[in-house]
Design goal:
The complex is a heterodimer of chains A (500) and B (216).
Chain A lengths: L1 H21 L3 H29 L2 E3 L4 E3 L1 H30 L8 H28 L3 H19 L5 H32 L13 H7 L5 H19 L7 H8 L2 H30 L1 H24 L4 H22 L1 H33 L11 H4 L3 H12 L6 H15 L3 H26 L13 H19 L3 H14 L3
Antiparallel strand pairs in A: 1-2
Helix pairs in contact in A: 1-2, 1-4, 2-3, 2-4, 2-19, 3-4, 3-10, 3-13, 3-18, 3-19, 4-5, 4-10, 5-6, 5-10, 6-8, 6-9, 8-10, 8-11, 9-10, 9-12, 10-11, 10-12, 10-13, 11-12, 11-17, 12-13, 12-16, 12-17, 13-15, 13-16, 13-18, 13-19, 15-17, 15-18, 16-17
Chain B lengths: L1 H17 L3 H26 L3 H28 L11 H20 L15 H20 L3 H23 L4 H29 L13
Helix pairs in contact in B: 1-2, 1-5, 2-3, 2-6, 3-7, 4-5, 5-6, 6-7
Classes of the chains: A mainly alpha (500), B mainly alpha (216).
Chain lengths: 500, 216
């Protein structure tokens, strides 16, 4: 059963990618992606249920393994992938209608662009799933690097000068960052290799390393963690390594940007957590905590000025994502039972809420043909009766306003901060979050509300409309009711983070 | 023996910093990778680590032959100006590389454990110091070079530093990980190569300082 699940989860996106590559018509590619990701979500739910019932599962001598943390990340990745693929159908059909794709031989240009999207996206998702399921830290690194490589051409999708610039920065900054992470992985291996049998694959398996972590070489492990934090931090877009993020998020097609923001962030943080557990076991909590709190506050702080004076709403979302990455890092840094729980709750809620925000922004952008605030005269709500109000609601949700779920997770993280004698960072976090809340809300309220500028009505495409309404319903419901098994899974995963 | 070869690798890295011509730079990189393959072979022979032979072979075929050939063809195809035009002039760059090498030695020193003489670390703090220096100088080249293709080359030489660190510290990573890293590297160079080509087509130049339209 476990073998089927783990293998199936990795095989489904590969198969979907291969089929989409062979497909000839747009309809076929859309159907393959939708069916593939729907099947993936079912498998992910089954895996989560299996892990909850029977504990960790592994196959092939522990080459692939899933504990509750992996199962949570797999579940969220599958959810985001499905939501994005539903939205993508409407989004790219609208692009086609708006003649966004260059070349006059219209039909063919469109198909080859879509071909690229529909066959690379499953590969991209496959790499993310492998990050969560690989037990070996070296294989995990390879998978994280593969997420970068698979998404470079998704970011340069539109082929504009600016999108090629964004893709280049993404590839180069990501490449440098990940080389640091590889160095960190090598050093971890070195600090452990006198304990664990080296030269076998198991020597880098996390489940083996975690048992021996207290005897690791301490100096080496310190350097290793710093390198890992810088490396996977770059991938997660933690300040000051965040510079690729606004460019990539604003240039990529909306479904890709949503996946980068809601799923890749999780994978990068997942990699960081695995090393965090090893480091705290080896050196005790303070060393990693201090570093994480510094980088977390820096990320939240860097986001503030850019949110306040932002000119483009796509870039605004990127800074919001830098801010949320910072909050999660802070949760991990504050530590303790509450910190770990708060971080994972935030990770979950963020993955579900962020795509909604991106979809709204995508609808507005396609409507206005621009992502600049000054092109919009306000009053979007008059021409977009669905996207407008949901955009406002998603903004409230993502800035952590009660009753939405992200308020609860931010509150949990703050309690961890006050409880764990991190009084000053917690106060600073509140101040910064309030500033971001104000800036964000003012921008979006100005965009959505106001007098009717007389734009033609939009929101007619059913795919775009109903993916929005469906996801918005999930976000609202999560504010009041978190399903019991999901909460259990998160609690279990928090125990993994604490190294129990 | 290994230390001597490692020293040559470092010399080549610094030569790359001092070099002004693109094609020469690619060849220096090829020579550096060739030496690395030699080091890996030597370590494999003396320490009976057979899987390192495979890593050595891959280094030789990929980094010393295939990638340089691909990069040179790319240079010819897009027919760019040969000079590199670094942001910092050559003498100063050399001085900074010297400084970075010193940093490499200082950092490597902190790993020295007199007690474990049998561990591979005893194979030479020098090798580790060279590896860290390669890494740092690779970083430095990344920052100061404006031609897109030079940044790719800097990234590759940085990766050479990592490979040296891996083989000198632990006789290399487990084989499948090593294979995966090589595969990633190959794909990365292809992806970056295509991007370089598109940058050249779109901007009519390979100067990455022209990629500055996205701000704020």
């Amino acid at each position: 059963m476990a073998a089927v699940l783990l293998f199936g989860i990795l095989a489904v996106p590969v198969a979907a990618g291969a089929l989409a590559f062979r497909a000839r018509s747009r309809r076929a590619m859309e159907a393959i992606n939708l069916i593939g990701f729907a099947a993936l979500l079912l498998l992910a739910v089954a895996l989560a249920a299996q892990v909850l019932r029977a504990g960790s599962v592994s196959i092939w001598n522990g080459f692939l393994a899933a504990d509750s943390l992996s199962a949570l990340v797999v579940l969220l990745t599958a959810f985001v992938a499905l939501a994005c693929s539903i939205y993508a159908v409407g989004y790219f059909r609208d692009d086609e209608r708006n003649h966004v794709f260059e070349t006059d031989v219209l039909r063919r240009a469109t198909i080859s662009s879509l071909h690229q999207y529909y066959s690379l996206t499953p590969l991209f998702v496959f790499a993310m799933l492998l990050v969560a399921l690989a037990n070996n830290l070296g294989v995990m690194w390879i998978a994280i690097e593969a997420t970068t490589l698979a998404s470079v051409f998704l970011i340069s999708f539109y082929g504009r000068a600016t999108s090629i610039e964004a893709a280049w920065k993404y590839a180069i900054i990501g490449g440098v960052g990940l080389s640091m992470a590889l160095f960190g992985t090598i050093l971890t291996y070195y600090s452990a290799h006198h304990l664990v049998e080296t030269e076998t694959l198991a020597g880098l398996n996390w489940s083996v390393l975690v048992l021996n972590a207290p005897q690791f070489d301490k100096t080496t492990m310190k350097l290793a963690f710093i390198l890992i934090l810088l490396g996977y931090g770059t991938k997660a877009g933690i300040a000051p390594m965040h510079t690729w993020k606004p460019d990539a998020y604003s240039e990529a097609p909306v479904p890709v940007a949503a996946m980068l923001a809601a799923a890749v962030l999780n994978c990068a943080l997942y990699g960081l957590i695995r090393f965090y557990v090893l480091t705290t076991k080896c050196l005790g909590p303070p060393f990693a905590s201090h570093l994480l709190i510094i980088f977390g506050l820096l990320s939240v702080g860097v986001a503030v000025p850019f949110v306040l004076v932002q000119r483009s709403f796509r870039r605004l979302l990127a800074y919001s994502s830098i801010d949320h990455g910072g909050i999660m890092i802070l949760g991990l840094g504050f530590g303790g039972a509450l910190g770990a729980l708060g971080m994972l709750l935030h990770l979950t809620f963020h993955s579900i809420t962020k795509p909604l925000l991106f979809f709204c922004a995508g609808n507005v952008e396609q409507h206005l043909r621009s992502d600049l605030f000054r092109r919009a005269k306000g009053g979007i709500i008059h021409s977009m009766p669905v996207s407008g109000p949901i955009f406002l609601m998603a903004t409230l949700a993502v800035t952590g306003t009660p009753p939405f779920s992200m308020f609860q997770s931010e509150f949990t993280i703050l309690r961890a901060g006050f409880g764990g004698a991190n009084f000053f960072p917690a106060i600073l976090m509140i101040v910064l979050l309030v500033a971001i809340f104000i800036g964000f809300l003012v921008h979006i309220a100005k965009l959505v509300l106001g007098a009717d500028p007389g734009l033609p009505p939009a929101d007619s495409c059913p795919w775009k409309k109903y993916s929005l309404i469906g996801l918005a319903t999930v976000v609202v419901v999560l504010g009041f009711w978190l399903p019991g098994p999901l909460f259990e899974l998160i609690q279990d995963a928090a125990r993994v983070v604490r190294g129990e | 023996m290994i230390t001597l070869m490692a020293a040559f690798v470092l010399v080549l890295q610094i030569a790359m910093v001092g070099q002004r011509w693109l094609v020469t730079n690619i060849r220096v990189f090829a020579a550096q990778s060739f030496l690395l393959a030699g080091i890996a072979n030597t370590i494999a022979y003396f320490n009976h680590a057979p899987h390192l032979y495979i890593a050595a072979f891959l280094t030789l075929s990929l980094k010393a032959v295939l990638l340089p050939v691909v990069l040179e063809r790319l240079v010819k195809r897009i027919d760019i100006g040969q000079e590199i035009a670094p942001l910092v002039n050559v003498p100063l760059s050399l001085l900074i590389s010297g400084g970075l090498t010193t940093v490499g030695y200082v950092v490597a020193d902190s790993f020295h454990h007199p007690e474990d003489l049998v561990s591979p670390a005893s194979l030479g703090r020098n090798t580790l110091a060279v590896a860290i220096s390669l890494f740092l100088i690779g970083f430095y080249m990344m920052i100061t070079r404006r031609k897109a293709i030079m940044q790719v080359l800097a990234l590759l030489s940085l990766e050479n530093g990592l490979f040296l660190a891996a083989i000198s510290l632990t006789y290399g990573m487990p084989l499948i990980v090593e294979l995966g890293i090589f595969f990633d590297l190959l794909v990365a160079v292809m992806v970056l190569g295509i991007l370089v080509y598109r940058i050249k087509e779109t901007f009519d130049s390979m100067d990455v300082s022209k990629l500055s339209r996205l701000r704020g």
